[in-house]
Amino acid sequence: MSVVQADVPALTDRLLADIADQLGRPVPARYAAALRAVPRHLFLPDRLWLRDGTGGYRPCDRNTDPDDWWTAAYTDTPLVTQFSDHAPSSSASMPSMVLRTLLLADAPRTARTKPGAVLELGTGTGFNAALLCALYGQDHVTTVELDPVLADEAEANLKAAGHVPAVVTGDASVRLPDRALFDLMVATFSTDHVPDLWRERCRPGGQIVTPWFSDWCVYGTLALVTTAGHRAEGRFHPFGSYMPVRTSTSVPASNTPPEDSSSPSRVRSTTSLSPWAVAGGDLDAEFHLGLTVPRVSFAWDSTGEHAPIRLWLHGADGVSVASVDYDGHQSEEFAVVQEGPRQLWDETTAAYARWERLGRPPVDRHGLTVCEDGVHQVWIDAPEALLTRY
Fold first, then answer.
1. Which whole-number Å values give the CA distances from 88 to 75, 82, 84, 363, in the listed order?
2. 228-256: pLDDT as tens digits
3. Measured distance CA(296)–CA(276) in Å, rounded
4. Which of 154, 204, 261, 312 is the most buried (most CB within 10 A)?
5. Which residues, in sequence order, are CB contacts of 43 under 8 Å at separation 6+?
6. In three state form, how does the secondary structure of 20-52 look?
7. Nearest Cα to Cα of residue 278 among 288, 267, 268
8. Is 173 annotated in the active site?
9. Which residues of 30-64 are buried (b: 16+ CB within 10 A; e: fewer)?
10. Which of 90, 91, 93, 214 is catalytic?
11. pLDDT score recorded for residue 263
């Protein structure tokens, strides 16, 4: 037996201290007790994949390197638990992010004497479902997982940890378990919209908490409160970078930039806006662009094939494209080429200028209202300050 394995309580203490550092305050007693009652290692496979420091992953096997495995299990870091098509397809989320989400979900519920019905969207390893059981009682918790293999493994993990919530296999974007209404829905994957079904099955006054993504930026967590008529409204919060939702009809997106062509629709110009300003890692700017320049993604090209450094913009329509080139020498003007029905760089430039006029608002100044008819309204500071709708 590994020396590390024999001291799980000490490892849990260290994990709680790391989480407290991330939160900037001690972990509330109720949640600390839940973490102690739900040992993370019970929800991890024998083979994990850890970041290798070069943008890739390295395997970590419990049988061949137990100390490394046990240390990883109780480190505040996400752990890849499944690969599909040479890419991560399931992971154990960073424990501090899990706690942030659960604290956000619990905020408006603290005055309730009964926990109500809780629905988890995306079972994964079962760890988050076990925490929900510890917090609200297993009889109140239902969890849905698209992948039947993961669902079976999670159910076994939950039983090993002493929890037996309702585990359902299915696509949570098109069908939910046959329980009338839920008081709380918590997603463990990110989404770029709130499905009508979620609002319809959330009790008025209930809450939907989900990580968020856009084609431009995978970041942020949305907390909505529902009202009568299936309306929902709330704010984004500056944490969370989760795998996007998979559905039964999901098709992997291509990251291949479009080829050059001699299309007559091509427009050439220059810009003084640096491509790094919009796609260089400023999460506040990138989050705003993702919300207000819909269905546009970016990719950097440093191969030198087209320019020393090129920023590609891709429209989800498959035909709109733009490139912004840095020539390796000057940094005040950049060459721009746009093609297709959407002028993607013009849209991006206008949205970035508006973000600056608004005072460079951070993520938590953004909010979302989902109307009865499903229209999403993005606003800044208050619902009256509408930015865009889709």
1. 19, 6, 6, 26
2. 889 999 999 999 988 787 654 443 444 44
3. 16
4. 154
5. 92, 125, 126, 127, 130, 154, 157, 161
6. HHHHCCCCCHHHHHHHHHCCHHHHCCCEEEEEC
7. 288
8. no
9. ebbebbeebbbbbbbbebbbbeeeeeebeebebee
10. 93
11. 58
